[in-house]
Amino acid sequence: MPRCSRHRTALDEIDDERARTCARAIDASKADAWDLDAVELVLEGAIDPEGDGGLPLLGKLATLPIPSAEDVQAIAGRLQAAVETTRDMAATDAGRAEQIADLLQQSLDLHAAQGDQPCPVCGDGALDSVWRERTEGESKRLRQEAHAAMQAQQELREARHKARALLTEPPPELQRAAEVGVDATDLTAAWTHWIGLPADALDEPLIAHLRQSHASLEEAAVTLRERAAAELRRREDVWRPIARSLREWLPDAKQAGLARRAAPNLRKAEKWLLAATGVIRAERFKPIADRARDVWALLRQNSAVALDDLELAGGSTQRRLALGVSVDGVAGQALGVMSQGEIHALALSLFLPRVLLSESPFGFVVIDDPVQAMDPGKVDGLAHVLHMVARTRQVIVFTHDERLPESIRRLQIPAAVIEVARRAQSVVECRETCHPVGQYLNDARSLTLTSDLPPAAAARAVPLYCRLSLEAASTEVVRRRRIGRGEAHAAVEEALTGARTLLQKLALAVFDNVDRAGDVLPHINAKWGREAGDAVAWSNRGSHDPIPSAQLKELVYRTDRVTRSILSLARSQ
Predict the structure, then answer these.
(1) Which residues, 6+ apart, have CB-to-CB distance to 451 below 8 Å?
(2) How far, CA to CA in Å, does 72 sit from each of 86, 109, 189?
(3) Which of 9, 103, 217, 489 pairs with 264 at a CA distance of 20 to 30 A?
């Protein structure tokens, strides 16, 4: 964790108990046992990082208590007053008033017990009622003087105790000020002088000491407090940035700690997952592999290559698709013997299953010229595959090959065939095309309606398009019939290629026999009428023997009827 390393470096550079406590809590050698709770408590100030050292000591020095000037002056004044009161009382008879009062009380008790009698002390006086009244008054006065003297003595003792109590030993923190870089020399000297008065010193020297020594003690204490407070502020200024950084890092560190504790279980899970990867991968890939084999079964047609198995192999960045194939039932490297068309078909077999997954976000498939290099059988298979894909996806195919549209029409697969042409000045024109039979007839019909076309050109072009329409109708009938009864596409195409003339193609369509070309016109005349036979004859020779312009529209009309009749042969079989 780079940020943690930076924090430890910063903490090691700070002379602060909080930093040392946090550094110990995130010791790099104990990454598995970080005490992040201790770090949080330090940041919140909820724990004392190092007992009474460092910051706590500075805090105590910054608020170091000494007797206040008001208390010192008040106690010194109290002691002064007590001393003076006691001295005044000593100048009177108050000191022996208690003894005299006791002696008079004994005389009063004797008189009360034995009545009037001569004075037992002097013998001259008499203890009578007059004496008693005068003596009781004197005793009361003496008692009052004695009580006042006792109070003065008590006050003196208390004031002296209070004064002595001010001369306390310095706190232990003062002796440790040097540990936190605070100079306490002045205050130590002032405090030593403050407590240096002998214990047997009289009251007057004590009073003078209190009044004269406290000022220097207070001045030294203020200076030490300021030094301690300044050191606290300095340390706080150094600590504050790293504390802020630690607060920002702490949530991520706690999350990482939770993750670290979970790591052993994760490693176990990872180990299990690595062991089970092959099984899981095979299970997840199985639907794709099954669909790929199904697609290949439609596309391969007469191919000798069988797609036996598909497997995801390798790991990390070296993953690949392993093809389990066989050629004529023998396992081997199929790509080396496959034609370009077979390779294209195999590529589609591997691509389309992924498109058809329910997890795929795309609702369409765009394929560019998939018919390239395919033989006619595979084109039919491709048409079936595209029809299957089109049940759940929109399928768009770009191709220059007419075989795919022909196959789709022959297999009666619903599809829209759109011709894209680039006209003059790069204007792109799109139009939906119809069956080639109808397309040729439409072109022929358009020529008959074109006013600026020379008649001679129209007389040759219109029969040509009519002938192409008849050939297209014948070709479709032959393909539907023969492929429908199971003949190989290659054999069908070979038969069509061998029928070079229009009558031969019509013979294949009508009789399924190219050698009966001579029977075509009589059969058409007999079955569909003389006009149908004339349309075939005009279309056959029209490009070499032009027909009158007035008959061109009639030729298109009659040819349309003949092509419909020819196409009906395929529907009736």
Answers:
(1) none
(2) 21, 50, 19
(3) 9
Q: What's residue 3's pLDDT?
A: 57
Do the Cβ atoms of 17 and 54 come closer than 8 Å? Answer: yes
Beta bridge partners of 171: none
Give per-residue pLDDT as tens, 477-505: 998 899 888 888 888 889 999 999 999 99
On whether both 20 and 119 belong to a single domain, the answer is no
459 and 425 belong to one structural domain: no
Same-domain pairing of 138 and 168 = yes
Residue 264 token pair: 């052993």
Q: What is the DSSP string of 69-116?
A: HHHHHHHHHHHHHHHHHHHHHHTSGGGTHHHHHHHHHHHHHHHHHH-S
Are 249 and 40 within 8 A, CB to CB? no
Euclidean distance between CA atoms 522 and 39, whole angstroms: 109
- Got the DSSP string for 314-373? --GGG-EEEEEEEETTEES-STTT--HHHHHHHHHHHHHHHHTSTT----EEEEE-TTTT
Q: Are 509 and 569 in contact (CB under 8 A)?
A: yes
Q: Is the pLDDT of residue 225 over 80?
A: yes
User: Is the domain of 24 the same as that of 76?
Assistant: no
What is residue 512's DSSP assignment?
Answer: S
Token pair listed for 253 = 């560190």
Confidence of residue 346 (pLDDT cuts 50, 70, 90): confident
Same domain, residue pair 119 and 247: no
Domain containing 468: what range? 436-572
- Joined tokens for residue 192: 């030593």
User: What pLDDT was estimated at residue 143?
Assistant: 66
Taking the C-alpha atoms of residue 87 and residue 377, their distance in angstroms, rounded to an integer, is 142
For the record, the structure tokens of 397 come out as 């195919």
Q: What is the pTM of this model?
A: 0.46
Position 265 pLDDT exceeds 80: yes
The number of angstroms, rounded, from the C-alpha of 400 to the middle of its chain's C-alpha atoms is 49
Alpha carbon of 431 to those of 370, 383, 419: distances in Å? 22, 21, 5
Task: Give a yes or no: residue 471 inside a domain.
Answer: yes
| Dihedral over Cα of 104, 107, 109, 115: its sign | negative
Residue matched to tokens 């590529």: 347
428 - beta bridge partners? 422
For residue 422, name the pLDDT band (cuts at 50, 70, 90). confident
The CB-based long-range contact list for 131-134 (8 Å cut-off, 24+ gap) reads 132/108
Using CB atoms within 10 Å of the CB of residue 135, give its burial: 0 to 12 exposed, 13 to 18 middle, 19+ buried: middle
Backbone dihedral region for residue 426 (phi beyond 0: left; psi -120 to 50: alpha; all else: beta): left
Structure tokens given for 512: 């399924």
- For residues 120, 121, 125, 130, the Cα torsion angle rounded to the nearest 10 degrees is -70
Specify the CATH number for the domain of residue 360.
Answer: 3.40.50.300
